[in-house]
Amino acid sequence: MPPSAIRIVVVVVVIVGILVGWGSGVFAKSIEATVMTPFEETFEISRADRDAGLRFAPSVKQADRDWFLAAIASARPEAQRLVAEVDGLVEVRMHRGDPFGVTIGTDEGFIIAVDVASLDRDRVQDRNVTVLHELGHVIDHALVPAGLNRTLDDGIPRSACTSPTEMIGGCTAPEERFADTFAKWALRGAVSQAGAGYAIPSPASLEDWGAPLGALAIDVATRG
Ligand SMILES: [Zn+2]
User: Fold this and answer.
1) pLDDT tens digits for 3-49?
2) Domain assignment present for 222
């Protein structure tokens, strides 16, 4: 997409991983996280980008495109509406090996790359949550205003760190708390406890937590 297609209010660089193996006690993947602005303001998304759809890198096989799109289609309608608002900013790539999933913000949009070696083999059950988690990062940075970010983060229980690197559990970076909980909300809680994720505690009610996102979905869908 041309650099002028989006205007960046705050430049963010986000490199975030998603774990596999939590819950089974096996940390098969390392985590990468470079988070510069926890509650940044949002992009102004151009009309052209709103109208555009998700792009796949030419190297992404049709079968992998199919499950990526099926993961989006499995989300609740409000979440799909939010995805539809930002998907024109996203290029999907596949890679092999760590990290399990990664979302990188650039000054031209976002790159989401997922570990096709795992997701096509022994972690097929983690496809949906991985896709929605990574799209959650894009929605977070592109659509969710800072004030709503804070409100949503306040609604996610905090817990003691369960890792020496303090990247697992309720003390994880706000971006991961949002993305993880967004995926749970989008999938109506249908998230494997033993698969991908940060072991972040769920809000008492995912429905209540996600209500402002449902309102945001209506708001963006009715913007001129
Ligand atoms: Zn993440």
Assistant:
1) 333 333 333 344 444 444 333 333 334 334 344 445 666 777 888 88
2) no
pTM: 0.81
195 C-alpha vs ligand 1 centroid, how far in Å?
14
In this prediction, residue 75 has a pLDDT band, given cuts at 50, 70 and 90, of very high
Q: How far apart are CA 171 and CA 173, in angstroms?
A: 7
Count up the domains in the chain and report the number: 1
Residue numbers of the domain that contains 89: 3-210
Contact by Cβ (8 Å): 188, 182:
no
Instruction: Please tell me the distance between residue 58's alpha carbon and the centre of ligand 1 in angstroms.
Output: 24
Q: How close is the Cα of 16 to the center of ligand 1, in Å? A: 5
Mean pLDDT of 144-149: 93
Residue 143 within any structural domain of the chain: yes
For residue 102, how far is its CA from the centre of ligand 1 (angstroms)?
Answer: 7
Domain membership flag for residue 220: no
